Amino acid sequence: YRALKRTLSRIRRGGRRREPGTLIVLRHGESLWNFNKTFTGWHDVDLSDRGHREAEHAARLMIEAGFDIDVVFTSRLKRAIRTAWIVLSEMDEVYLPIFKTWRLNERMYGALTGLDKIETMKKIGPEIVQEWRSSLKSRPPSVSKKSEYWPGNYRKYADLDADDIPVTESLEDCTLRTHPLWDKKIKSDLRKGRNVLVVAHANSLRGLMKMIDGISDDDISTVQIPTGIPIVYKFDKHTMRPLKPEDDTCQLHTNGAFMERPGLLAAALRREDEWKVLDPAFAKAMTDRADKRREMSNVEWSLAKLEAERAAAAAAWTGGEGEGEGVEMYEDDGSDVRGPIVFVGEEEEKMEEKGAREGEEAVPAVPLVASSACVVPSKDGEVPIRKDPVVVIIRHGKTENNKLGLFTGWDDVALAKEGVEEAKAAGKLLRSQGFEFDVVYTSWLSRAIETAWLILDEMDSLWIPTIKTWRLNERMYGALTGLSKRMVKQRYGEKQFKMWRRGYDVRPLKASSFSPSYPGNDKRYVKYLRDARISLSETIIRSVEARLLVVHRKFPKSESLRDCMDRTIPFYVRRIVPDAVERGKRVLISSSENAIRGLLMHLCDIPQEMINKLDIPNGVPIVYDPRSRCIKLLDDGSGRNPLEVHDFGPAAGKTRGGASSVEERDRR
């Protein structure tokens, strides 16, 4: 099979060597500590409002340029993780894999962490502080291991050897730890033709660029990484050396091309803020425009917003009251030098503008009613962290399709406002009950991915690894996709409707090969799904249409409940159990109703005649204890029984012994 795969790949390329992928490096948006000029390093602070806008702008630039991302690498710090999430959300590609690694963390500033930069210079002296910041090999004083700023005190680094957790770092130390990531992962993906996005920090990105461009020790400190501006690298397919851009869009000593002139975004954001203050009509127009976002695709919205930002930038460039007022061509980027970005061809006139750097940092039994069922009581005061292995399963928050009663299946719809709040509430509830997670599994559907993201965000655990798989997707509803349940009843009758919706082995009408709801017409499945067999008929049809060989997988055109379970249960048994459960990890699974039915059918030995009578409410955590095989619900502290608050369907009415779930809870 592998030999055939390689042969088909060579045929498709015409025997030519594969073109390497494109590398895009992006520094995270402005953080809260960038804003107030505080040494940050490995301390985990979030983005400021401006940082959010910078991340959105970066995504819009990539959309406009037509870049297609295949894989994302980022650090374990939330300012970089959130930037990556914002970028993928804008690009409608949250299903892409994101690898979070400490090797891309910012430089560790030791005992300087948490100190105000300006005040530190006044107390210690600018010469000493600048030596710590700008020298390649000089390290600031070490942080105490008892300090709140030592990374070893945090769970997110528990997998690292003690020697890998720094108490301080020089710029060289930061650069050296990025080498293995480049050599073993990023370069390998690029060689395979994958387009790679790296979202990190000024100093860790500087380390990558030093390797890629072969920048000398003396010159590396002059390289600047502005926020919100993607830098693009192309590579020679024979040597994997970076190619020089045809225009002068790269700075001195580098081959990475800026996607936009640095300084324009800062000017646009300043002018937009000024307009909102001076002109209430403009502020209302921007609000109205945001409200209309649901009427546009993410891509359409992003391009429209990009045009608005450029209009503001143009006004800032030409509309200053005083002569010479306009766009600053550089800002303190948090690296260890302050000065202008020197572009190729501008060396002589720009060299005179170098100055001292002062500024921001780089920043029969049925589930829930078995004899072992119980409700976990709420707790007051400090709650101990749960250390035992656990599997928490949650259905995504409500979507507009859920509210309208539409069959959704594999269609990728976003959470409704209510769904967002449900996911956030679930995260708060889990945190209040002492839950922590070691790994997250979710589907390739954005409603499930966003639910997992919002839960982790509420639990301050965005660094947790998240594994996305199509095998946890909702059931594929075929030609019913997008139709309302009421419409299907009217067209096909109540009996047929119930058979399609609740029958265990009955598949709805198949979707056409050319239907928008067929997964074979969705890029994410065509490009990335590899663990499904090849469809000969679809391969012939698409090869004839394209006039070249197009290998097509056998994607589902319709699924019964059994079909959905036949892909969900094996994934749990063969992947989640050995990789996580048997290793004592605490697991969160965010998915859709029918995929969760499959999991509960397996976990609780539910007979097939009962499983279709179980409903899974949106946004309600279902807790499974692998040791006791006990299914639990969480008490939200309201005093109400969760089984009475949430509708789990007729299957959740009685326990084995006939006692109500309320009585069972009272006995416990």
UniProtKB/TrEMBL annotation:
Keywords: Glycolysis, Isomerase. One of its GO terms (molecular function) is phosphoglycerate mutase activity. Substrate binds at residues 27-34, 40-41, 79, 106-109, 117. GO terms for biological process: glycolytic process. The active site is at H28, E106. Its EC number is 5.4.2.11. It catalyses: (2R)-2-phosphoglycerate = (2R)-3-phosphoglycerate. SUPFAM superfamilies: Phosphoglycerate mutase-like. InterPro entries: His_Pase_superF_clade-1, His_PPase_superfam, PG/BPGM_mutase_AS, Phosphogly_mut1. Pfam families: His_Phos_1. PROSITE patterns: PG_MUTASE. The record marks H201 as: Transition state stabilizer. Residues 644-668 are annotated as: Disordered. Belongs to the phosphoglycerate mutase family. BPG-dependent PGAM subfamily. This is Phosphoglycerate mutase. The lineage of its organism: Eukaryota, Sar, Stramenopiles, Ochrophyta, Bacillariophyta.
